[in-house]
Amino acid sequence: MAVTLHYFAHSGNVAQSAKMFGMGKASAIRYIWQVIRVVEKCIEPMFVKLPHCEEEWKDLCNGFQKICGFPSTCLAVDGSLFEIERPHDYEGWYCRKLYPALNVQLVVDYRGAVRSYNFRAGSANDKAVFNYSEFGRNIKTIIPNGMFVVADAGYKLSQQILIPYPITDEMVPDESLFNYLHSRTRITVERAIGMIKTRFRILSSR
């Protein structure tokens, strides 16, 4: 547990964390993965989950609306690049910023709590990650009628996904106001990504 916490809380590599606790790199890797599997199987299902009843969905909408009055928003989605060590088979792992990475999709509520996540190789854009994810494939049955997920312009507008108006010189005041309120609401997911990268420094080496 100690070597796992050290590894995730610092921006170094496994060898540095292993040295800190007087163990070999192979042992550290084995222990880290043991802890990850326990978290994934036993702890994650308790916290990373979508609402199960109408009251929970309404609570999420009310929470988002209190931010700036943007109505009917239940979740926010965005993707972020997390740098990784270059895999041996690195084809497709390099992102648009020219380093090997995972493109991680996070779906969060108004508190910034992660409700769903998915990831793909860094070469995949946010729309592709969304389309491949279980959340994206099943969004029509997941999101209740009349509620929406806010996303940036990298996503596709749909009955469940709200994106901002394209920014042009011909924008009318109502469209500009919509974009402003949309941005203030959607920033919740960006803050969540920032908090994760701050807490787990291994994820923010760039």
Question: Nutshell version of this structure?
Answer:
It is built from 8 helices and 5 strands. It is of the alpha/beta class. The protein folds into 2 domains: 2-45; 48-203, no CATH class.
Overview features:
alpha/beta; 2 domains; five-stranded mixed sheet; 46% helix
User: Mind summarizing the main beta sheet?
Assistant: 5 strands, mixed
Separate helix tally = 8
Structural class: alpha/beta
Helices and strands, in order, run as HHHHEEEHHHEEH
What is the CA-atom radius of gyration, in angstroms? 19 Å
**Shape type:** globular
Level of helix content? 40-55%
Rounded mean pLDDT is 93
Q: Give the tally of β-strands.
A: 5
Strand numbers in spatial order across the main sheet: 3-2-1-4-5
Describe it.
The chain has 206 residues and is of the alpha/beta class. It folds into 2 domains: 44 residues; 156 residues, no CATH class. Helices cover 46% and strands 16% of the residues. Strands 3-2-1-4-5 form a 5-stranded mixed sheet, sandwiched between helices. Strand 2 and strand 3 form a beta hairpin. The chain is globular. The chain starts with a helix and ends in a 7-residue tail after the last helix. The relative contact order is 0.14.
